[in-house]
Specification:
two-stranded antiparallel sheet, about 80 residues, elongated
Length: about 80
């Protein structure tokens, strides 16, 4: 008899962590689109254990910096 649980490992998230990450991704993406408009659509957001990764192509270093600042100001982002 073996029991398999949904516990996190260094390379995976538990079910609860996955749900939290998905919610955080949505919050960040919403903020980027709200504050940057169409420029925010070009930025992809991935979250793993409260760490957010932004990727994509933007028109300037200023937009890049602004996107990072916006994401960093979301409660829960590490």
């Amino acid at each position: 008899l073996s029991i398999i649980a949904c516990s996190p490992t260094p390379t995976s998230e538990s079910t609860g962590q996955y749900i939290d990450s998905s919610a955080l991704t949505a919050k960040v993406k919403t903020e980027l689109i709200d504050k940057l408009g169409r420029k925010g659509l070009a930025i992809q957001v991935k979250t793993f254990k409260d760490q957010v990764q932004l990727s994509g192509f933007v028109s300037s270093a200023a937009v890049k910096e602004r996107a990072g600042a916006l994401a960093g100001n979301i409660m829960g982002v590490k």
